[in-house]
Request: fold
Amino acid sequence: MSSSALTDLRPHAHGQRSVFARRPVLTGIAVGAATLAPHVFLSPEGSVVYAAIGIALIAAVYFGFAVMNGSPRDQLVEFNVTGLFALAALLGLLLSPIVIPIAYFAHALW
Reply:
């Protein structure tokens, strides 16, 4: 297998897709719970930093997908969106933490 079982959506040799591809809603819930769990153990300031890093990393992953599969136009769009999410993370850290959940909401819309 050329990529991780977590991201490989192609049928396996025996003709079945991975459990993650067959159950996308449960996968989303599990990943969401796993990423939210550290907030329970962090201080409020640490939680804000963790959330800011998370939104910046999410945007970077989208840019990585554009580099791997996208046209130059797609790459340019994703590069700019990545910059906006990184800026939102920075503004959330420096100015007001409310920017970070707004960025997560924008991510859901994007």
Remarks:
- Helices lie at 19-22, 24-36, 38-41, 44-69, 72-94, 99-109.
